[in-house]
Amino acid sequence: MDDxxxxxxYGIRTLLRNPVFTLVAVxxxxxxxxxxxxxxxxxxxxxxxxxPYDDPERLTLLWTNxxxxxxxxxxxxxxxxxxxxxxxxxxxxxxxVPTTVSVTEGGDPxxxxxxxxxxxFFQVLQVSAAMGRNVGPEDDMSGAPRVxxxxxxxxxxxxxADPEIVGxxxxxxxxxxxxxGVLPAGFRLFHPDLQFPDNVDLWVPVVPVxxxxxxxxxxGSHFLRAFGxxxxxxxxxxxxxxxxxxxxxxxxxxPNYYDFEGWxxxxxxxxxxxxxxxxxxxxxxxxxxxxxxxxxxxNVANLQLTRTAAREREIAVRTAVxxxxxxxxxxxxxESVLLSxxxxxxxxxxxxxxxxxxxxxxPDALPRxxxxxxxxxxxxxTLAIAVITGVLFGLAPVxxxxxxxxxxxxxxxxxxxGASSRSGRLRSSLVIxxxxxxxxxxxxxxxxxxxFLALQASDPGYKSDNVMTMRISLPESKYGSxxxxxxxxxxxxxxAASLPGVVAAGTISHLPLSGAYxxxxxxxxxxxxxxxxxxxLEAERRFVSPDYFRAMGVQVVQGRSFDQLxxxxxxxxxxxxxxxxxxxxxxxxxxxxxVSINRDANGNRVWREVVGVVRHSKHYNLSTVxxxxxxxxxxQVPSNAMYLAVRTQSDPSSMSATLRNLVxxxxxxxxxxxxxxxxxxxxxxxxxxRFNLLLFTAFGAIGLALATVGIYGVISYSxxxxxxxxxxxxxxxxxxxxxxxxxxxxGMAVAGVGLALGVGxxxxxxxxxxxxxxxxxxxxxxxxxxxxxxxxxVATAACSGPALRASRVDPIEVLRRE
Length: 818
Prior knowledge:
- The structure is a single chain.
- By secondary structure, the chain is α+β, with helices and mostly antiparallel strands.
- It folds into 3 domains: 1-57 and 274-415, no CATH class; 67-262, no CATH class; 479-666, no CATH class.
- The protein is built from 24 helices and 22 strands.
- The strands form 3 sheets. Strands 1, 2, 3, 4, 5, 6, 7, 8, 9, 10 and 11 form an 11-stranded mixed sheet that branches.
- A hairpin with an 8-residue loop joins strand 14 and strand 15.
- Helix 14 (417-457) runs antiparallel to helix 20 (687-721) and helix 14 (417-457) crosses helix 22 (736-765).
- The chain is elongated and about 110 Å long.
- The two termini are 45 Å apart.
């Protein structure tokens, strides 16, 4: 312990005697360690931290799998009942149905996220009410009274944290619900595919809301999100095999419905399914910051080599008087670790600010975004990485210094000639590594940039500029008939279209990029001979008003748009998109063809005439093409929940209050939600690529700066060591230009090797980022050439300063000093 304290004191004195070296090294390490700490805090929260439930590793999600067209689909009621009956590995299997409801009591009308849950749902999660009781099996039955649970936040915000809330009522969609409990503070439902605006504020049993037992509904009605809890001791792989067997049993029970190959039940870990989409990007970002740290280590190692060369005589003298080499190694490594810990401390301070920035710029889809923080686990990671970094950049230079000849070092009197011959290759190797790593980072940033630009330039099939949108959900208790629904939206559209500055106003059931979507089996009546003369596919369904396409700038490429005659009394009609036409009528005129999505009250299939073809719209995000789409008049297929889209002549932001007032003028109790411009929705849809681009660009810039400093430092130090040689050359008649060329050639040779190795590494590693790119090859030649040119120019600039200094050496002064 005494030796360690002595080494620490000596190390502190040594660092204080070299303030420039200490400052540069601390800043360099702080950049590398701080970036790693910040990114690891995201990895720790999103990928490593268990979900906040009891035994979260036993929680699963179950999807029905209908093949390549619809690889993951929700579960129908009959399928759920059979899964409960046939499985042997799940102790509980519950469901949740997301929705929104209008709350009109206790304040202004408000639309909140709600969830219908099975009676055993909270048993699946093993969550108990903080006040009152949970929704139970007795509540999820036909004829049971309507009851509800509140989230802690909703209870506090809407009801002022009333301690007597249990037993009182809340009015949602015009129906009275008895409040039976309040959930714990901080409770959230994690699911990768729930369409909640923010989170769930109101929890109600499913059956009383539907007015029917969901297990007895149509087998093709897939709307239940299924959660399972595995029995103790059961592995995920065992649960998967069990559900495969269950799928075969379900097929055998209903062979007419599952009359195709490939139908199955997919069983996934709740945590794994939650992070599936973001995991590749986060791991690649972790690799990127690891590269930044390696570059920082190489830079500090080069600084240490310089110090070791300068202290070579000290090492030789202490060795000559009997100091053990192990003792000296421990002292120098202690200095390195001490330096790294100081850099880590400053890096940790910077990481707090960087984490806040990451949270600010992170996409909303990032799971548990609000929980990201620097906790105890992250602090341990920072300490470990600081110690490992100190050993890495400290041990190699010290070991290299001890390879010096004792007699030679004493004879050289610390001049450093021996250091030049022994450590020059190691310093050059470190710079080569820096250049290669920086090039990989810059190519990653370049690919992300080109991908992001291509994504923004892609044609989504609609025009997002100058469009204001909002969601309106009419309660069925108040608007129970299709005529009442149509009357409300007719009034709203008429008044919105007559506003000054409005070009067009329309409604749609599922707005692009809103997170809302719906699909269903769509049959196509064909002229050629086929079973029942029908083809079927899983197509996207949209219910729209006549002026929707004009409001959204969707081009009608063939036929016509809907009009006011396409109402409940008119001929059933439909409009399909270009992908739909390409699949079924690529060589035929689609106008006049027939499609069907339902049957009438007598069980006869309702055929709808195709009257128009529109451009395909990217619905989920700008990078996903999506399935075939079909549109239907909203008066023929009414929907209580619709999105209003209003195109204006200028910035639509000022229209939000006016449009709200239009809704309230028709119905003062009707709330609106999700009031956003289409430009905002487009920006949100590319938030993940923008986040990746931002981080890669930042890390690439840091790597470039550190590599530039490394090149400059090595060439500058080389010029200092070779000043005698350069002086002799110039005394013998060498021109300044030849000296300049000599030094530049030396620096560019090192940089060139680094560039070559970096290109090879980038070609191999860039394949890992394929899933993050859009319309850009991972070996895009334009990106590679551009980065090589930029980094080559920067390396040339870094070499130019020392080269100019070398070309201006005064040979008389140099020879006089020698």
